Amino acid sequence: MATSSDQQRDRGLQPGEWQLLAVLGLPTFAYALATTIATTYLPVLAQDFTHSSTVVGLLIAVEGIMALLIAVPAGALSDRRTSRLPFVRWGSPVLVVALAAMGFATSLPYALVAVVVFFAAYFVAYEPYRALYPDLIDPEIAGRGQSTQALWRGLGTIIAIATGGVLLTLGKPVPFLVGAALTATAVGIFLALLPRRRTDTDHAAGSSTGLREDLQRLRDLVVRRPDLRAFMVANGLWELSLGATKTFIILYLTKGLGVGTGLAGLAVAGTAVFIAAATPISGRLADRFGTVRVMRVSLLIYGAGLLVPFIVNNAIVVGAVTPLVGFGGGVVMTLPYALLIPLMKDDDHGLTTGLYSVSRGVGTALGPLLAGIAIGVLDGPFSGTDGYQAMWGVCAAAILLSVPILGRLRDETSQNR
Known about the structure:
By secondary structure, the protein is an all-alpha fold. It has one domain: Up-down Bundle (Growth Hormone, Chain: A). It is 79% helix and 0% strand. The protein contains 19 helices and no strands. The protein has helices at residues 17-24, 26-46, 53-60, 62-79, 85-102, 108-130, 132-136, 142-170, 174-193, 196-199, 211-224, 226-256, 261-289, 291-311, 315-320, 322-334, 336-340, 349-377, 390-415. The longest helix is centred in the middle third of the chain and has 31 residues, at 226-256.
């Protein structure tokens, strides 16, 4: 196993690897579409039963809370099974039903139950699924593996945002019902096409540890590995920024800038095009020049771009920096897991993937909450956008704070060369 992403050789893909990457990314498309609809359009529905941005932030912060509770046990449990696919089969149907039910939310308790069930099922399915990447993909093409996955994620995000606003005008449950149908279809195709001989492995052979032992192993990893600690903090900050953005972006456009819901969805979809463009470019660059190096440059550009809508509420100026924000967001969505893969031990893919999601969970819990509080507190200074402009300050601060932490991670991985 490679000790640093900077050591990966820039080689071509072998026969069958493109097909494997394409099929392996289908659940990413499905889950990205489902979570984007849930986290982007449930806040719009929530305006009917709460006018508090803090309450909306708390509602979406459930994603992070469920990650903290479920991600590690699900990933570790999949390490003790000869196949990770049953977790996808068990979790996905529950996720689909919860997403469809979410569209009928008319009260805060109803919405809360739907969100809790949705994200519980999501992490039961997603952690073992994502651990298939280090199981099946050569570390030498980890960057391209993650860029392919990010292309699927970008496609799911684009479709969810671009069509969600239009579908919402047809009826409040419509985006959620359509999203549930597309999610079920994509996961079904994945389960049908992925070769079983590649997924039924002996990675669980000889493993008899329980959850308590897994958690102890995870604690030991964090205590003994400064590189993993640095990664967790940096990744948490990246997810904080992304979580705040996707929760309030539609409300920023509709309530803050006065854009219609359908047009707001199309505008965000335009940004998602730049996200999609960033994924193959960043993956290829990471395999060639090193993941940390590419991340460092991208974060500086991304953080600077996020400061513009925080300082200025002019729609033309905000539109001008959209390519920078979109491209930077695409890199942040693509490369973190590729940064983690070389740090994994061969028999701990599921457990370390759970660690990844714990850091994600902290970020996705804090992002919507902190952005919601900032919107409420700064409503006066940013009255021109009903306070929603404040969310960009939270996003920019998180990204820029992660840059020196990423530098420490680079120092640690350099010592391991």
